[in-house]
Amino acid sequence: MCRKDFSTSEKLLQHLQLHQRALQFVCDICGRGFSRASRLREHVRSHTGERPFHCSVCGKSYTRPSRLKEHLKIHATEKLHRCSVCAKAFTTTTNLRAHEKIHMANKPHPCSICPKSFLRPCLLRKHMRIHIRDGLISDPADQVRPLDGGNRSYYCAEGLLVVQLY
């Protein structure tokens, strides 16, 4: 994701046009653009509800094969690693450690539209899709975000408008 800084919102908007030109695959339903046809196909499933990748063990379905592959790991081993806060169980200590961070009070990535804050930038970007869908973010000018709450530096938040699905 692009995170370039700009001294004015005008320079940022000029820069955002570069991203928009690169997004040649556009969703007919919501207008979101993507740089790859495969990413557009995956995105369209968010509108249609299509989940063509099914778990043969429990029947749960997914929009992408990579998500199914990740899910299948839960059936492969016992969940021996348990969160001390909420008792949720995990197959690996890595997953447990990642989960435990959600219980931390310090969430340094606040939403500029609502009061929620997030531990990681990717979770903030995922959350921003709600505001995009609800029409609260609709044009490049809405993506201008002052850094550090008030100084006059701006960054490119292209990832808030175009979410790459992996």
UniProtKB/TrEMBL annotation:
Q: Keywords for this entry?
A: Metal-binding, Repeat, Zinc, Zinc-finger
Question: What Gene Ontology biological process does one annotation of this record name?
Answer: negative regulation of transcription by RNA polymerase II
State any single GO MF term.
Answer: zinc ion binding
Q: So which domain of life are we looking at? A: Eukaryota
Q: Which PANTHER family match?
A: KRUEPPEL-LIKE TRANSCRIPTION FACTOR, KRUPPEL-LIKE FACTOR 15
Protein name according to UniProt: C2H2-type domain-containing protein
C2H2-type domain boundaries: 25-52, 53-80, 81-108, 109-136
GO CC list = nucleus
Q: Per the UniProt entry, what species is this protein from, by scientific name?
A: Dicentrarchus labrax (European seabass)
Gene3D superfamilies linked = Classic Zinc Finger (3.30.160.60)
Report the InterPro entries cross-referenced here: Znf_C2H2_sf, Znf_C2H2_type
